[in-house]
Amino acid sequence: MGHKNKYWTLFLSTLTISTFTFGGGYVIISLLKKKFSDELGWIEEKEMLNLAAIAQSSPGAVAVNAAILVGYKVAGLPGTIIAIIGTILPPFVIISVISLCYTAFRDNRIVAAVLRGMQSGVAAVIADVTVNLCGTVYKETQVLGLVVMVAAFAASWFFSVNVLWIILACAIFGVGRTWYLHHKEGRA
Amino acid sequence: MNYLDLFLSFFQIGLFSFGGGMAAMPLIQAQVVDRHGWLTMAEFTDLITISEMTPGPIAVNASTFVGTRIGGTLGALVATFGCILPSCIIVSLLAWLYFRYKNLSYIQGTLSGLRPAIVALIASAGLSILSLALLGEGSFNWLGGLMFLAGFLVLRRWKPDPILVMLGCGVLGGVLYPLLDGGF
Predict the structure, then answer these.
(1) Chain B window 111-130: which residues touch A at a Cβ cutoff of 8 Å?
(2) Which of A177, B113, B176, B184 has the fewest CB atoms found within 10 Å of its own CB?
(3) In the prediction, which pLDDT does A188 show?
(4) pLDDT by residue (tens digit) across A22-70?
(5) How far apart, in Å, are the Cα atoms of B168 and each of A27, A77, B50, B75, B174?
């Protein structure tokens, strides 16, 4: 694929995804994974999760951070700029228009009904992506990965632990495991 | 009206909001309502409602909203640029480091610990949206549940573009919810 084509696909993909991303950073990560891993095959599934982890642990909006990383991976620095513009253009335009007449928008029954319907759709997309990713994690790290996953889920869902603590704990766990494996190898 | 104030305020919001989404809200409130009085608390609440109803990160929505109200389109551009600039610098640097050093065993090890956590966080976010869709209005929303199941099955079976599933549910909701609630 030529450079121009690649830039154009990157721009259109981030633009469409951002236009339909209701409900925060993880929705966009699910959609980025579907587009760039499953459909275009530009980013491996495992790498997509790495990028998501970096996006989550950096300051700023997860969606913008993820766009920067995906753009960089696909086409270097120009890719970063293209992906940022594609990601912030839709909310910029939509909010600019809405801020002129926002009370009418907020109180419109049809708008509310459409958005309520879309919540079900968004939840279905995330459920689909989660099922696929659970398979990936299991293939890679077997039971240990599943244990980490269940623990992280419980911490986030049942105990409302701040995401940053979960990320930090899992990073420390990863480092510790690497150290242990090295240690074992050194002895053997 | 001072564009520099606007830029600096949103630069701070972009720099200090970790964890995404609602985590940025208290910071935005501190800058926009408490410190500069650009919005009243009621307007800020409207902003959150609108952010939840429209696509895009809440910090970017807030920059555009506040920027437009106090400085027109130029204000919106200045605020949005300030808000994403810290991400652009920090994350580009991290991207460069990651693609250069990702094969080091400790980086690999750290990331292999993080990947299951990210899947868990995605699942947790999905469950929050699902419970909002099904239980948000007080009583159990069976139509929302049916649309969720249908959407999920369609995605598993035919693997369509996910945006089509989201839009399909939106259109169905736009038609069926008002009918159920007693006509248009």
Answers:
(1) 111-127, 129-130
(2) B184
(3) 57
(4) 766 778 888 999 999 999 999 998 899 999 989 988 888 889 999 999 9
(5) 17, 36, 22, 36, 10
Chain A closest CA to B50's CA: distance in Å? Answer: 7
CA A16, B20, B69, B174 dihedral sign is: positive
Among B20, B110, B112, whose Cβ lies nearest the Cβ of A25?
A: B20
Position A156 in a domain = yes
Q: Which of residues 24-53 of B touch A (CB under 8 A)?
A: 24, 46, 49-50, 52-53
Convert the pLDDT of each residue in B21-77 to its tens digit. Answer: 666 777 888 889 889 999 988 888 888 778 877 888 888 999 999 999 888 999 999
Task: Return the ∠ at Cα B44 (arms to B42 and B50), rounded to 5°.
Answer: 105
Is residue A135 located within the same domain as residue A51?
no
Count of domains for chain A:
2
**Which has the closest alpha carbon to B33: B49, B7, B25?**
B25
Does A124 contact B119 at a Cβ distance shorter than 8 Å? Answer: no
Distance (Å) from the alpha carbon of B2 to chain A's nearest alpha carbon? 19
Considering the domain architecture, whether residues A18 and A81 belong to the same structural domain is answered as yes
Residue A161 belongs to domain spanning: 125-188
Q: What is the ipTM of this complex?
A: 0.83
Name the closest residue on chain A to residue B157, using Cα atoms.
A128
- Whether residue A142 is found in the same domain as residue A96: no
Cβ atoms within 10 Å, residue B69: 17
